[in-house]
Specification:
Elements lengths: L15 H22 L26
């Protein structure tokens, strides 16, 4: 490591075309999986408890 600052594109470390190509490949891979598996895993929304009028919200403890 030479600890030098430089423009990453000019140094050839970051190739904008490769970044775009990799992003498109990853996106198409995910889209293909979603289309072919016919299933999707997601979290079920949690139900909020109705605390009613004048009641303390859960988790407030005792004062």
């Amino acid at each position: 490591a030479r600890l030098e600052f430089c423009d990453l594109v000019e140094a050839g470390i970051v190739d904008p075309a490769k970044v775009a190509r990799t992003a498109l490949q990853n996106a198409s891979s995910v889209a293909g999986l979603l289309l072919t598996t016919e299933a999707l895993v997601a979290e079920k929304p949690k139900k909020k408890e109705d605390i009613g009028p004048g009641a303390m919200p859960p988790g407030m403890g005792e004062f």
